[in-house]
């Protein structure tokens, strides 16, 4: 895999060298990442980039600095791969930041200049940032009957005490040794993960339990996709009954607009939503544990109503409309209103038994 | 330990029952947590609570609701201990929230009402929230030659691949099986942890590496203290060269005002600061990688100058004054400016060799 990425980086450099040899204006092709070039691919059920690209030229006052920055980032990533080390996107910024000789001009003034260049490079040579050995903060935890290999260590996800395994930002390098599970349960809240972990839910139901701690990191999304793709495990997303929770589900399932260029690598189109729904609030007697929705919640719910993948499903239309009409929301912790073990012993088993999922 | 905490909770209930039997106004004593009652104990080098307490009465219009809430929280914690389960502070809020019969009065309207009651209970019966089985989000990671036991699993901190062990909110229940290390290096940034972990710094230097991810969680502070107390390991804190980084060090070392009542359980007075300092910026040629300090940074640095434990040390006075005069700051990632391995192969070994720490 590393070799393939190196080849792509070398091809990029070679292309620019060829332009110079041919005395042409050196340039690189970068697919456009604006909303105008993001489409929902009905067949794959994912957001993807369209075909529009833009050329970035060296001899162009408006492009020259970005051209230089793109070359610097590409060259930095090449040396990460050569040295077999990783760096955070902030490390990269500091490493590349300098003042050009005899000038007051910096290569990069702020990290907000180097971050988008990484995405440009991702789309230009069609690789993941993680494959370029660039990392971000780790986020997300996992537990289950799974043994993996990571940097030469064998790690048993069932033997990590109260901790679970902290999901790194680069999971494409881990190898699965054994995977003994029937499904993956993705929980939006770490508190929910902790409760289910303590109640040994993953042992009792033979599943893999993942806590995302809010919007899942790219590493967590990649891990979910790998478990789904490589091990054919159904994925159920358990999130708050509010627009943000539904959006988290949508991102896991179909990708996001800002990361549309990598949907096929990190989205899981077959993921299903297990709860919490507004209907659940009434079905499971949680009315006392709801929160009044804010204007922004209602506004977001109205936007979600218009998403193509929610439009086609009457149940989603119903739930989103309920959210708007009732003007309430509920967090998964609201289930504790019925007792601390209600989530693991009543609610989730009931939902799983009825196969009561939203698609 | 659990038994001791249960006894304290029972004593609290018994006290109230006795008041009723004696036909007195039921009340509980709660040490005052305001700034007026926080003192810096020079001998222990920690912030602690003074002796002022206030009585909370049942028959008092201003106290009655809080009195009820305190009893509800105490009773909830008692059942957590009896059932041997844990709950997040948000779970607790939802579990206890209800509307009183024949009224529109809620036991708790918002979590912001139940959270301070937990601290009241902590100070009233002198236990840690963690000992009451209340949890918060896990934060912080650790790696090193250490084997622990947690919920019946043996966990080897040296064999967790790229991940490290995710530090739970309750670490007083873990047991140390073997600890083979010469010191503890606490890193403010997770990105710093990742770089040092990848470079096998903890293996090469035989240390325990802890990443706090910003201000350390209570669990992480408790872990640092336990490693220092129980295993006599020196603790070195590695944080940004800015007022916030110095404050993080100060909290690890001496505790914080808002948690003064638990300093003796979670602070590590012997902790030392290894860097980054403003002097380091000049000594290690990092000037190109600094950031202009904001007004708030300067304001905070001026406040830190007045802290008793920074006042007594001329080197701290010098560094804080440099921060103010030069108007710059630097993050630990700035070391990447000198190369990605500069931190693990040059800077830290050099500091350790010279024993160049601030106290």
CATH architecture grouping of the largest domain in chain A: 3-Layer(aba) Sandwich
Overall mean pLDDT of chain A stands at 93
Regions of chain A with pLDDT < 50 over 5+ consecutive residues?
none
Biggest β-sheet: strands ordered side by side in the sheet of chain A: 10-7-13-12-14-15
Main sheet of chain A, how many strands, which sense, barrel? 6 strands, mixed
Alpha-beta classification of chain A:
alpha/beta
**Separation, N- and C-terminal Cα atoms of chain A:** 33 Å
What oligomeric arrangement do these chains adopt?
A: homodimer
The total domain count of chain A is: 2
CATH topological fold name of the largest domain in chain A: Dna Topoisomerase Vi A Subunit, Chain: A, domain 2
List the helices and strands and how they pair.
Two copies of one chain form a homodimer.
Chain A: H1 2-21, E1 27-31, E2 38-41, E3 46-49, E4 53-57, H2 64-83, E5 87-88, H3 89-96, H4 111-125, E6 134-135, E7 141-143, E8 146-150, E9 153-156, E10 165-166, E11 175-179, E12 183-187, H5 190-198, H6 201-204, E13 207-211, H7 218-231, E14 235-238, H8 243-254, H9 263-266, E15 272-275, H10 278-283, E16 291-292, H11 295-305, H12 308-311, H13 314-326, E17 328-329, H14 342-354
Parallel strand pairs in A: 5-6, 12-13, 12-14, 14-15
Antiparallel strand pairs in A: 1-4, 2-3, 7-10, 7-13, 8-9, 8-11, 16-17
Helix pairs in contact in A: 1-2, 2-4, 8-11, 11-13
Task: Walk me through this protein's architecture.
Two copies of one chain form a homodimer. Chain A is an alpha/beta fold. The first copy, chain A, has two domains: 2-135, Winged helix-like DNA-binding domain superfamily/Winged helix DNA-binding domain (Arc Repressor Mutant, subunit A); 141-354, 3-Layer(aba) Sandwich (Dna Topoisomerase Vi A Subunit, Chain: A, domain 2). Chain A is built from 14 helices and 17 strands. In chain A, β2 and β3 (46-49) form a beta hairpin. In chain A, α2 (64-83) packs across α4 (111-125). The first copy, chain A, is globular. Chains A and B meet through β5, α3, β8, β9 and β10 of A and β5, α3, β8, β9 and β10 of B.
